[in-house]
Amino acid sequence: MNSTQLLKNLFDHMFWADAEVWNIIFDNNHKVEKDEKIKELIYHIHLVQFAFLGIWKNVKVEYPKIDEFESFKSISDWKRNNYKNIMNYISNIDENNISNTADIPWSKYVEKQISQKPENISTFNTMLQVCLHSTYHRWQLNIRLREFDCAPPKVDYIIWLWSGKPESKWPE
Fold this sequence. Notes:
mainly alpha; single chain
């Protein structure tokens, strides 16, 4: 498996795992609809995915603020369009464009946090970051869902592989 195949697998898994969490949120909306922590986490996951797509495409992105979303459904609708764009981009990646250095607009902020100038990183590594970052926050979401007596989905990468790499099934 080469780098582009690995990334396509990881993004397919990310889309599937995100959809599984969204299905739990929609199925339990009556329990979680007012929870600001879930709203912040789900918004943040998709905001980061959206922002990195702009980096990969080398375009400045304008993104909605969290307060512009009235419900989980409105965040889900926004994310659905983002996913189509990300999927289109990922389906066309090749070894050349993932080896390019990524220009991260918020690197000056990171410089203050780590007390040094950030090293240059490749687009490949930023793509890994998106998948890993989404996994980290999905884990936080699952913990929060348990606090509302919602059974979180099993979204481990190996579960996805053992299940035959199912496609994402998004809530309506």
